[in-house]
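Anyone up for a design puzzle?
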């Protein structure tokens, strides 16, 4: 009887032992023509066993990469795609540059500032006035959500100007909504529940 402890490790366990053996057999074939035929047959079997891979973009390329990996890159066949190497898969991905923008008001993030700067280019009129008021109320709502405390309207107005790079001035006719209309609903911490009377067993007579 053959036990798993005596078998070679599966390189890609998802394909199972039989596919792994097929790949190993393909590597051992001396005839290049027959080796190519067997490799293509294995690719077709892999695609049939795992039809969900067809949803992946260029799934055939992925299958060919997998068959080379399972052969420990020893399979010498004609592939329709560039033949990968072990070094290719050992390469570490490039570090992603982390945005190093300084945010003056962390609770507003960066997007709201960009929107305010873009609002400067709007044509003067009712639409621009309405946009600035809406953005001011958005700042106030975000402030209340973050701090949970009272928001000073004069502070919000000043911050609108600062975040726009000083190019937007809060006009006297602009109106900020009341804090109670913008603040998120508060959850009730204490709810009175009716106490259930303890169940009493009836005495048997």
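Challenge accepted. My sequence:
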């Amino acid at each position: 009887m053959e036990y798993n402890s005596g078998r070679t490790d599966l390189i890609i366990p998802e394909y199972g032992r039989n596919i792994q053996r097929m790949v190993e057999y393909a590597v051992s074939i001396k005839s290049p023509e027959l080796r190519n035929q067997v490799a293509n047959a294995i690719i077709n079997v892999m695609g049939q066993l795992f039809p969900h891979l067809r949803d992946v973009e260029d799934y055939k390329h992925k299958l060919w990469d997998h068959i080379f990996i399972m052969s420990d890159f020893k399979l010498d066949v004609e592939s329709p795609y560039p033949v990968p190497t072990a070094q290719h898969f050992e390469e570490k991905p490039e570090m992603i540059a982390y945005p190093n923008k300084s945010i003056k008001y962390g609770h507003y993030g960066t997007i709201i500032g960009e929107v305010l700067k873009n609002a400067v280019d709007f044509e003067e009129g009712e639409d621009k006035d309405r946009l600035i008021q809406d953005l001011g109320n958005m700042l106030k709502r975000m402030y209340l959500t973050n701090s949970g405390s009272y928001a000073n309207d004069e502070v919000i107005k000043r911050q609108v100007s600062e975040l726009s790079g000083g190019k937007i001035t809060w006009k006297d006719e602009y109106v900020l909504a009341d804090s109670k209309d913008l603040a998120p609903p508060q959850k009730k911490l204490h709810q009175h529940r009716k106490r259930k009377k303890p169940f009493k067993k009836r005495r048997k007579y």
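A detail worth pointing out: The chain has two domains: 9-89, 106-182.
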